[in-house]
Amino acid sequence: MLASTTQDPALAAATTAAEIDALTAGATFGAALRATPEFTALLGTGKALDADPIARAAIHAYNEKREDLRVEAAMNLMTQEQTDELGRLLEAMHEVPSVIAYVAATAAFGALCRETSTVISGLIGIDFAANSRSGGCCGG
Amino acid sequence: MLSTEIHEAAIEFGRSLRGAPALAAYRAAEAALDANPDAQALMADLRRFQQASIEAQQRGETPAPETTEALRRCQADVRANDVIMAHLRATSDVKAFLPLAATEVSQALGTDYAKLIAPTSC
């Protein structure tokens, strides 16, 4: 919680109360988001993904190859064959039905959240999305 | 298209945020800066000198002494300008407060709301 800069106890109490109101409203808003069909779909597709051995194998294969090539990718040193192989594994992963469903559910819920963020930014007069992580939009 | 429920919940949260002291102070500081052309010009000078200094360093050069001196003078002027300093402090406070509010959302949601709404460059 932000420290109040005022020395007036009544004003300090009001400041704290207003901050608590805003934080409580945040929790209420989070609960409302959790109750959306989009979030329910995300949870459901996530569970289905975890239970699907084909999806898990495809994800594992892609992640393993990506990790193997992490240094080459970071230094822009990947050969065409390596790029093609990573691309094939990514494509194979994205062809698994449970992955397709999870990716779609993630995109739908992300879009919903970004839309709510636009509403909030309009009300507060500052970009909420860009300022809602410590250290700026990229965290830190 | 947001459902009525979630749109209203977002509006309620936004209104509560708007009423928080950090946001109120930020709006007041923003208005004061907007109404003060001298402060705006000083900030523009500061950015210009900072940029010149950065560009010189990126070229592997030492910034010219007159650039360094102009930057130093400009920094001193900014530090002495109440409107700018109030704006900088208010901005810092609001950037500290909004992540707290986003964390409350994330905790109730069970996943990182701030990450979901982050600009795609992040």
List the helices and strands and how they pair.
The complex is a heterodimer of chains A (140) and B (122).
Chain A: H1 9-34, H2 37-50, H3 53-68, H4 70-74, H5 80-94, H6 97-124
Helix pairs in contact in A: 2-6, 3-5
Chain B: H1 4-19, H2 21-34, H3 37-58, H4 65-79, H5 82-109, H6 113-117
Q: How does this model look, in words?
A:
The complex is a heterodimer of chains A (140) and B (122). Chain A has 140 residues and is mainly α. In chain A, 74% of the residues lie in helices and 0% in strands. Chain A has 6 helices and no strands. The two termini of chain A are 19 Å apart. The relative contact order of chain A is 0.09. Chain B has helices at residues 4-19, 21-34, 37-58, 65-79, 82-109, 113-117. Chain B is elongated and about 60 Å long. Chain B has a single domain, classed as Up-down Bundle (YheA-like fold). The model of chain B has no long low-confidence stretch (mean pLDDT 92). Helices cover 82% and strands 0% of the residues of chain B. By secondary structure, chain B is mainly α. The chains are: A mainly alpha (140), B mainly alpha (122). At the A-B interface, helix 1 and helix 6 of A face helix 1, helix 2, helix 5 and helix 6 of B.
State the order of secondary-structure elements of chain A, H for helix, E for strand: HHHHHH
Quantity of strands of chain A, as a count: 0
Please compute the radius of gyration of chain A using only Cα atoms: 22 Å
CATH superfamily of chain B: YheA/YmcA-like
Overall number of strands of chain B = 0
Assign an overall shape of chain A. elongated
Low-confidence stretches of chain A: 1-6
| Range of helix content of chain B | over 70%
Taking Cα atoms only, what radius of gyration of chain B do you get, to the nearest Å?
20 Å
Q: What's the overall geometry of chain B?
A: elongated
Largest sheet of chain A: none
Q: What count of structural domains of chain B?
A: 1
Which residues of chain B sit in consecutive blocks of at least 5 with pLDDT less than 50?
none
Structural class of chain B: mainly alpha
Helix segment tally of chain A: 6
Q: Indicate the CATH class of chain B.
A: Mainly Alpha
**CATH-defined architecture of chain B:** Up-down Bundle
